[in-house]
Write a structure and sequence with these properties.
Layout lengths: L5 E3 L7 H10 L4 E2 L1 H6 L6 H8 L15 E2 L8 H7 L4 E6 L2 H10 L1 H5 L8 H13 L8 H4 L2 H18 L5 E5 L5 H7 L13 H12 L4
Parallel strand pairs: 1-3, 1-4, 2-3, 4-5
Helix pairs in contact: 5-9
């Protein structure tokens, strides 16, 4: 189904689960890291290769069957994806750096730091990709994760970089908890007759952990 029509440049833990569901409601088939746990046929190796040499990747392959993508690892490669898909719109989901830091400290970081305890080989593979391509593996580094100011700065630096890099006519910045109106206007879609998804991302993450990681 590629090429991508929508590229999510926002980090995980910024409402990407809800956005994933919202885009699907709007008619897109949306890629999210959680898809890789549910569908083992999805090839995630290209993302590791792209971390070393992004110019060598045929981006149609990892996104085959999808026309929108959010969350990690997509947001790491938003520049390359913008170049590959020049008509794609870019969504940047944001929240306060303090609340984002608190969220990753409760979810991704503890899991990353228990990598060797994971029993599912597929889950290990997915997490390994995340650790390779996201912020130089910081989530697995307990000491660096304790540096609240450092981690928050990495988050805000990414947001500012996206705002600088993406032309204003291709970019929508969405605050955590926003609804349909601006999103649908930006994408040229009718507002659905259902509420905007407001999924509990932390609870959803923990559910995926217990379901796909064989009860750590």
């Amino acid at each position: 189904m590629a090429p991508l029509k929508v590229i999510g440049a926002g980090f995980g833990r910024t409402g990407t689960i809800s956005l994933h569901e919202a885009l699907n409601i709007l008619g897109y088939n949306t890629y999210h890291m959680a898809c890789c746990l549910k569908d083992e046929s999805l090839d995630i190796k290209p993302f590791k290769e792209a971390h070393r040499n992004p110019e060598a990747i045929d981006w149609d392959k990892p996104y085959e069957g999808f026309d929108a993508a959010v969350d990690w690892p997509t947001c790491t490669f938003y520049k390359e994806l913008m170049d590959k898909y020049p008509d794609a719109k870019v969504l940047l989901t944001v929240r306060s750096p303090e609340s984002w830091y608190a969220s990753v400290c409760k979810t991704i970081a503890p899991l990353a730091q228990r990598y060797n305890e994971i029993k599912s080989e597929r889950a290990k593979e997915v997490l390994d990709v995340t650790l390779k391509v996201v912020l130089d593996g910081i989530f697995a580094d307990e000491e660096r994760m304790k540096d609240e100011k450092l981690v928050q700065k990495l988050f805000t630096d990414h947001i500012e970089e996206v705002k600088r890099h993406v032309p204003s006519d291709r970019l929508l910045v969405m605050e955590l908890g926003e609804g349909w109106d601006r999103l649908c206007q930006f994408l040229g879609k009718e507002v659905p007759n259902v509420p905007y998804p407001k999924l509990n991302e932390a609870a959803s993450f923990q559910d995926r952990v217990s379901k796909h990681l064989n009860d750590l």
